Amino acid sequence: MVSESTSTAEDTASEPNPAHESALATARHQLAEAASIIDIDPNIVERLNHPAAVHEVTVPLKRDDGTVQMYQGFRAQHDSVRGPYKGGLRYHPDVSREECIGLSMWMTWKCAVMDIPFGGAKGGIVVDPKDLSDAETERLTRRFANEIRNIIGPMTDIPAPDMGTGAQTMAWIMDAYSVQESQTTPGVVTGKPPVIGGSKGREEAPGRSVAIVSREVLEYYDNPLEDATVAVQGFGSVGANAARLLDDWGATVVAVSDVNGAAYDPEGLDTRSIPSHDEEPEAVTTYADETISNEAIFELDVDLLVPAAVGNVITEDNVDDVQADLIVEGANGPTTFTADSILDDRGVRVIPDILANAGGVTVSYFEWLQDINRRAWSRERVNEELETEMLAAWEAVRREVETRDVSWRDGAYIVALSRIADAHEYRGLWP
Ligand code: NAD
């Protein structure tokens, strides 16, 4: 059963709690900050402060032992003025209504900064996937897909993988949806295996965009990649792909980490000899001659720091220890609002997630185009078009940074918000 509600009083509280900022509080503060810089109708800002809808479902699962357990699932749909809702589905014990709303807002800005014709959404199930067998995960996913079937679709809302979900999860959702609709509908989700309509290059895309943006920003500040030292927190889909590309392109990657700690070599690591999270989970430190703690990675005096693990890792508590000159955000929301202003005051440049890791949603858009046109692109074409889109977005943000003398985060938000506000202006409010 799908219940639908518009925003309520509890998600209007947006005062930041510096010690523990929620994704929603951070997203609202970033919106307010960008809106204060550009001339935008406050009525539009007010609309963007709230999700269009938050769907909450209860998903029953028959466990392998025959008992039935109930799980809570969400889908927050923030804004669709520029196109269908788009965003990941997360399986994690910390999934909440508030978190889904905050993350759905980031998806709206991310699609807009890339000029992709999608809006923002996010959802998930409150579950630790490690507690489920594969068969249980499949049954939970298929039932969840059915519970949200009426609100997703290739022209309405297109989910994708996120924490705790992957290509197999998307394949089950695509199958469940297609069976119910009586037609194979690959465009209902992205991040699928290529054999059923997934795109080549999708898995690598967020890491590739992080690497492209890092290369451009280093060059912009006259510090070419070949002379730069880099530390990457998180060696998963985003972190490992970013670290390896930067390594391939000539940077010296001195540290990479996973949840257990970091491999460290001031002369530069061979990033391809260290297994990514996908290749061998949480094994980074076992392949290292020298290790340092996960916290110590933030204290390294490197040219570029890439937090690419989880959100809220650079906070008021550790921001003073950060030695890097430049931070490119690989994860979503790794820097709290408070830490971000402290870094800004110190002159540390932060390239925001909504630009840096947007390669993921950009290749998801390519996947959707391939699905609705029934035509597969080569990996070379995907990578070439991604490079073109990333450079266009980078240029648009750079122009704002230079013209208005604002931070890179504000520049990216200004680009995104201007496009969204113009779309709202033209479409108006009905009725
Ligand atoms: P992943 O599961 O593939 O890898 C995560 C990595 O981070 C692992 O190496 C893990 O050991 C490490 N890690 C986890 N918790 C940690 C902690 N507390 N401290 C240090 N390391 C920790 O995840 P991913 O897909 O690479 O996603 C990473 C981040 O990037 C998330 O914030 C995600 O939302 C964001 N993101 C992912 C994509 C995508 O398509 N994969 C796209 C855009 C943004």
Describe the structure.
The protein contains 12 helices and 13 strands. By secondary structure, it is of the alpha/beta class. Among the domains are: 51-192, Leucine Dehydrogenase, chain A, domain 1 (Rossmann fold), CATH 3.40.50.10860; 205-356, NAD(P)-binding Rossmann-like Domain (Rossmann fold, 3-Layer(aba) Sandwich), CATH 3.40.50. The strands form 2 sheets. The protein has a 7-stranded mixed sheet. A 6-stranded mixed sheet has the order 1-2-3-5-4-6. The chain starts with a strand and ends with a helix.
Task: Provide the fold topology.
Elements: E1 3-5, H1 23-37, H2 42-48, E2 53-62, E3 68-79, E4 85-92, H3 97-113, E5 119-126, H4 134-147, E6 157-161, H5 167-181, H6 205-220, E7 229-233, H7 237-248, E8 252-258, E9 261-264, E10 291-292, E11 304-307, E12 326-328, H8 337-346, E13 349-351, H9 353-356, H10 359-373, H11 379-404, H12 408-427
Parallel strand pairs: 4-5, 4-6, 7-8, 7-11, 11-12, 12-13
Antiparallel strand pairs: 1-2, 2-3, 3-5, 8-9, 9-10
Helix pairs in contact: 1-3, 1-12, 3-12, 4-5, 6-7, 6-10, 6-11, 10-11, 11-12
Bound molecules: nicotinamide-adenine-dinucleotide.
